[in-house]
Amino acid sequence: MTVALEMSDVTKEFDGVRALDGAWFRAEHGRVHALLGENGAGKSSLMNVVCGLYAPDRGSIAVDGSPVRIDGPAHARALGIGMVHQHFKLVRPFTVAENVAMANRLGGRWTDELALVAETIERYCGELGFDLDPQARIDSISVAERQRVEIVKVLMSGTRILILDEPTAVLTDDEADRLLAVIRGLAERGTAVVLITHKLREVHDFADRVTIMRAGRTVADEDPKALSDERMTELMVGSAPRSAAAARSGGGRVRLAIEELAAARDDGVAALAGVSLAVGEGEIYGVAGVGGNGQTELAEVLMGVRSALGGRVALDGEDRTSAHPGERRRGGLGTVPADRYLYGLTADLSVAENFGLTGLAAGRYGTWWVASGRMRGDTEAAIDAFEIQCHGPASRSRLLSGGNAQKLVLARELSGGGGILVAHSPTRGLDVRACAAVQSQLLEARGRGAAVLLISEDLDEVLDLSDRIGVLNRGRIVGEFERPANRHEVGRLMVGHA
Amino acid sequence: MPDRAAAAPGRTFRARRFGRLNLEVRQSIGRFKHAAFIAFGLGVGLAISVAILLAAGVEAANIFDEFVVLTFFDRLGLSSVLIECSPLILVGLSAAVAFRVNFWNIGIEGQFFWGAIGATVIAIFDVGPPSIRIGLMLVFAIVGGFLWIVPPAIFKIRFGVNEVISTLLLNYVAYQFVLNQIYGAWQDPRDRFPHSEAFDAAERLPLLGWEKVHLGLLISLVAVALVWWLMQRSRFGVYMRFVGANPHMALASGIPVAMTIFLAVGLSGALSGAAGFVMGAAQEHRLTGTMAAGYGFSGIMIAFLARNNPAAVLVVAFLIGGLYAAGQSVKVFYSLPQALVSLIQAIVVMCVAASDFLVRYRVHWLRGDGR
User: Which of A257, A466, B150, B191 can pair with A314 through a Cys bridge, CB separation 3.0 to 4.6 Å?
Assistant: First the structure.
């Protein structure tokens, strides 16, 4: 076996946040390498460095034994490195052959070239055991088929090092098994395959070697047969002792109740398959889980921007399953969305308007003549109380940094005083200080008797803040834990095959 | 499916390079600088226009006289500008209200026609006592314009049908209906020309007693005040801003998004209908097939230049009215073709619109060493 790729001491910072911190990685031709880690552990960042998408701040890369400086994606392709991203890079109204031809110019007249590409696609499909129609439009084929198009596209450009970013996340079990068999076949023909994943089952069943990352560092490089599930989970989630638990203050009457909630993604695939949980007064209920297991859909259904396909959502015992967001807010709900500039803020409008909107909708600033002076005053008070750094209430919220934008959202959602809060990844992308500020605001809200549902992909955050934890896996709560929760048990349910 | 990438503002710091020209997206701009850039665009547009007029044989001294002195500082000239701008203000407001909630109302002319039809029905069938007939005509015009935009509004809100197509095509339906009536049942029995019979004295808007300026101007000014209050001072106005700028966030914040869009769009139709009324009852004094021509695009242009701000609509409509009035007299006195007049109007508007580029980007030249 020859070494295909060797990376050492790779470091990459984004705005002061270390995504990679001296990470190293090694892959050989003819083998399947699993790259395992939690969300944000640095797996994707490391592979983006290999693909030439990120330039590392420090570190060295060698391809087929010779050291290289990868200038960009085109250079990476020339070196025989190809990556299938989680979000496919396909042009939807075009056919399979057109998409493949765009990435692999064979020369000649476009129509001749297309015919040639179509032939080549069919040859590859024959070798790989794929079933693909080169003339089908991307729109009309399934997610699994689109992934095959991506794989053929990458292989056709002479890829010898194939990186797949969580390829099974979008597939059904059967499709995933078929894909993994194909990957195995590719490795047997000499390709070095890197499989980014956080599913232990795939590591055990399909990988020859596993590299485990945590917090930007490489923490293990082993034969998966030598590692137990428990040991892998421990390496993934770490075993650092957590800070002393804040005592649970209440846990009184149930304010937010969810029963057998079902919902689908935009493309119709089931995302929630009967989620049930209840959050009481003065309690933080943490939903832990690996991203893509229904977190976004759960948050959106609760916000009222995605319709539930079944089940029930009740605020203080009142059924609000299909209520308009305004009605939910009158029922006491506040929401902190994961994507701040989609559901949380309007970038082009002022800080004061963004802060005052929900109060305005609740009738606090008048109907016929908006009390803009009072709104500005309230905004100033919130800017002081939440330490939001900005150029005053009249400045556009586009100018806020991520942390300050999130504080503004939080200030608004807590100002309603309804006492029920759904927070989805409230600290994603924030620096350490802003992160701590947001977390302490959540704890303070709980102290005042709020019922908080914290949906987060950051396990540390869930463990730190929650009084109870539910693990969301494939659209179901697969286990509940009381504080203090056992980190490894939670981690095992998160990555287990539910 | 909401477009997440487009909603993230963090990505606007990008700098683009074209040789030594470096473009940087502005994060914010001061009021004075903003006004200066628009004035710069206006200046460039006027300079090009002057060059064209000179090339066409108009003397330099006369250009200033025609476009400024005789248009804005002359009794007859100013009065014709005021007459010209009354319907322009209304269609400008109509476009501004709809655009504020991101509804591209291309059907202003259709709603204009239905406003005129509503007024005409009252007038030619002598509905109601003469003392309130003119008021009744206004009400029917507003209802006519409103009803004509209701189907596209509902199709857009309920089924996501593209309003650009639906409102645009309904213009032709309205136009063909008007032709059907003026060549048929409503044709003027007196001269057999393709227009309705002339309105009686009680069915015409009274003059204000200064040249030929009529009550339509007051109606437009009242509309500006009402729309300004609604958009800039009322709660509904804040709703409109959020619905237009980020409907996802508006919905999640509990705003009645669909109702906001429906009411704003309905108001847009009603304003276009009122413009049709002013045109019919004060200028044409009858229903004609050409009365709406050009008002759709004028309204869109005015709203665009005014950044959908109702107070600015008033100013822009006044200036555009001046441009039209001056264009008409230049056409007559210097026997210039209509195309040249339209060309000048288009160039001025385009240059002002293009100044938006400087508002959005900071442009600077890189030094020789590439920095």
Answer: A257
Residues of A in contact with B253 (CB under 8 A): 325, 329, 357-358, 361
Name chain B contacts of A369, Cβ cutoff 8 Å.
Answer: 233-234
Measure CB to CB from residue A360 to each of B2, B12, B238 and give the nearest one.
B238
- DSSP run (H or E) holding B169: helix B163-182
Q: What domains, with CATH codes, occur in chain B?
A: 27-58+349-362 (no CATH), 85-333 (1.10.3470)
> CB pairs below 8 Å between A and B: how many?
95
pLDDT band at residue B2 using 50, 70 and 90 as cut-offs: very low
Report ipTM (2 d.p.): 0.84
Are A498 and A201 a contacting pair, CB within 8 Å? Answer: no
Degrees (nearest 5) of the Cα angle A160, A20, A486? Answer: 105
> Which residues from B are below 8 Å from A when comparing CB atoms?
1-2, 4, 7-10, 12, 27-28, 233-235, 237-239, 241-242, 245-246, 248-256
> pTM for this structure?
0.80
Instruction: Find chain A residues with C-beta within 8 A of B239's C-beta.
Output: 361
Judge contact between B243 and B101, C-beta under 8 A: yes
Residue with tokens 């559901």, as numbered in its chain: A343
The per-residue pLDDT for range B27-52, each reduced to its tens digit, is 677 788 888 998 899 899 989 998 99
> pLDDT tens-digit profile of B326-368?
888 888 888 888 888 888 888 988 898 888 888 888 887 766 5
Helix (H, G, I), strand (E, B) or coil at A252: coil
- Degrees to nearest 5, angle at CA A326 with A320 and A329: 70
Pairing of strands A17-28, A161-165: unpaired
Q: What domains sit in chain A, N to C, each tagged with a CATH number? A: 3-237 (3.40.50.300), 254-345+400-495 (3.40.50.300)
Q: Do A370 and B246 touch (CB under 8 A)?
A: no
